[in-house]
Each structure stands twice: as structure tokens, then as C-alpha cells.
Amino acid sequence: MGRIVVISTGGTIASRWMGSGFAAEADGREVMATAPLPEGVSVDVVDLFSVNSPRLTTAHQLTLLRTVHEVLADPGVDGIVVTHGTDTLEESAFLVDLHHHDARSVVFTGSQLPMGSADGDGPGNLYDALLTAATTRGLGVLITFAGRVHAARGTVKTQAVALDAFADPSKELLGKIGFGKVAVLRNPERPAPLALPAMPELPPRVDMVMHHADADPLLLNAAVEAGAQGIVLIGTGAGNATPEIVEAVRAAVARGVLVALTTRVAAGPVTEIYTHGGAVDLVAAGAVPTGTLRAGQARIAVLAALLSATDPATRTRTLRAALGTPDPVLVDA
Fold first, then answer.
1. What is the pLDDT of residue 327?
2. How far apart are alpha carbons 221 and 9 in whole angstroms?
3. Which residues carry out catalysis?
4. CA dist., res. 199 & res. 216, Å (int)
5. What angle do CA 197, 168, 27 make, to 5 degrees?
6. Are 33 and 162 contained in the same domain?
7. pLDDT band at 329 (very low <50, low <70, confident <90, very high)
8. Which of 17, 109, 178, 212 has the greatest CB tally within 10 Å of its CB?
């Protein structure tokens, strides 16, 4: 079915017992040795790095992004599989998807159980990822886990330790894998891809601040003072906060900070329903609503926008483009 390049980055699928807990230590060839290959598939391995995914930095993720593009520059490659830790897999996959302009699939997978576990899920997930990379086209970046295929956009880790770890709480399942076949159930919605960003000497700081009962603007203001160029405000409900936080958002935007608005609720879109500090006021103050993207992926969208330009207006337009939402139409009074 084709030649697949496996990019190994660590995670539980590459983890061993280290005396007090598990840590990523195995290289990509050791990981590949645990799984059978689908018939007709050949594999090349790129050992990019081997870390537990909570330790990933923007520099790691941009290196992965550029490596994907370098691999796909070879027309003899039929697809890519990225083995990755589950904690931040949704962020890295979405970053690659935002910049993915190729019909060939890039498939992220990992495991919830470490190497050598009885009935471990790594080998099966890896087999499914290889099969998906070899047999699908035009779907963008995908995540395969526990016999299911997910679009990168909107998919998050929904289970801390259960094997069926990923889902998009706001959309129907993209596909299923079984009996050596991949069944695609729908086509994902994907905006036009962004241009590949340069590797900055110092990546822009993007912070996340969550609203809660009795919250005040202290942490949001602290992020601005710490040099954040972007902030993701995680509101309650459909994307709500308080009048005091609205004013802090307005002040941050006036200083050129790119502010995105998401919600701490598991499913459903940010919606402009409420005033008195709600999404109506936050959007009017300059926050960009992120639809059904949750905090981690909203942060990646902000990061991509910041890397695309230096002026605030262009960054805001790029963020809206990444979200698939047009700029609001201004009507003269």
C-alpha cells in the first residue's frame, strides 16, 4: 500500500519503568518492533526526540512541524505517522493540521499503556495509524486511537487513563478501523492552510487564564505584564466572565495582545448570548471567539497567528482564518 515514514517523539508508547514511574526512553525502531505492519506497507523511522509530552515546548512542536514538511517533500512518501505522548497530542496534531497543505495523511497516535504492558494498546494503535496513513487521502491531519479515526481539529483527550482516550465532544466520529479497513464516515471541515512559519529565536508567549466564581483580572493582567503576546480566556458557559475581566481584555487588546475566548464546558460553541461580562461584551472588547475549539487548541491557533505576522490587525485576521470564521462585517451607522 505504500511507504510510510514514522516520526517518533516519545510519550507513553515509548515509555519504560524508571524505578519511580514511567518515562519515554525507547527510540522509534524499538517502538516499531512492537507492532505488525499492514500488508504492503514499508516503514522508515525518524527519531526526532523522546520526551514525555507534558515537557514539549513550542520549539519541539515547530521542529516537528518542519520535519513533517521536509518528509512530505519526498514524492516517494505515501504518508506519515507521528508517535506522540497523549497529554499534548491534541496540540501538536492541530498545529500540524493548521499548516498541512498536502493530500497525504499525517496520522498521530500513541498509547495509554507503556511498552511491554500485558494487553498494551500501543501495538494496535500503531498498526491502525499505519493503515490509516497508507489508505486515506485528503482528510488533513488525523488522530487514530482505540480503533477510531478523529480529525485533528476539535479532538481532545477526554479520558485520563482509559484506552479510548480521544474524542471531539462537539462533532460526530470521523471514521472507524476494523478488519484491516478504514471506514471514513464524514469529511472534516478545514480552512485553507496557513503558510509554514519561520523558526523564531524566542517563541511568543501565549498564556491561558480560566474564569471561575469569584475570579478577578489579576491573572490575566499578570500574563500581560509577563510579556504574553497572546492569551486564551477560558470562560464559563458559552464563553462568559465579568465586567472587570471585560475591561482587562479591552486593555490587553489595546496593548496589541491577541486574546481568544473559549469555554471550560466540554462541548458546544462559544456563543454571544449574555452581556454584563458575558461573551457579548468580551467579543466587543476584542476577544476572538474560538467556536468549538477548547483551550489547548485555541492556544495553538493563537500561537500560529502570532508566528504569521507582527502587527495586531493581521494577527487577528490570521486567527480568524485559522478558526474558519470571517472577519466581522462593519456596517456604517
1. 65
2. 35
3. 12, 86
4. 35
5. 60
6. yes
7. very low
8. 109
CATH number, residue 26: 3.40.50.1170
Are residue 55 and residue 156 in the same domain, yes or no?
yes
Q: How far are the Cα atoms of 121, 153, 205, 248 from residue 162, in angstroms, in the given order?
A: 10, 21, 32, 39
Is residue 329 a part of any domain in this protein?
Answer: no
- Residues 94-121 have a mean pLDDT of 96
Q: What is the pLDDT of residue 318?
A: 97
Count of CB atoms situated within 10 Å of the CB of 119: 7
- What is the distance, to the nearest Å, from the Cα of residue 243 to the centroid of all Cα atoms in its chain? 30
Cβ density class 52-62: b for 16+ within 10 Å, e for less = bbeebebebbb
* Domain extent at residue 142: 2-184
Same domain as 77, residue 179 = yes
Q: Is residue 265 domain-resident?
A: yes
Q: Is the pLDDT of residue 283 over 60?
A: yes
3-state secondary structure of 104: strand
Share of residues in the chain with pLDDT > 70 (%):
98
Statement to judge: residues 16 and 160 lie in one domain: yes
318, three cell numbers: 490570521
pTM of whole model > 0.85? yes
Residue 138, phi-psi category: left (phi > 0), alpha (psi -120 to 50), beta (remainder): left
Neighbours of 235 (CB within 10 A): 28
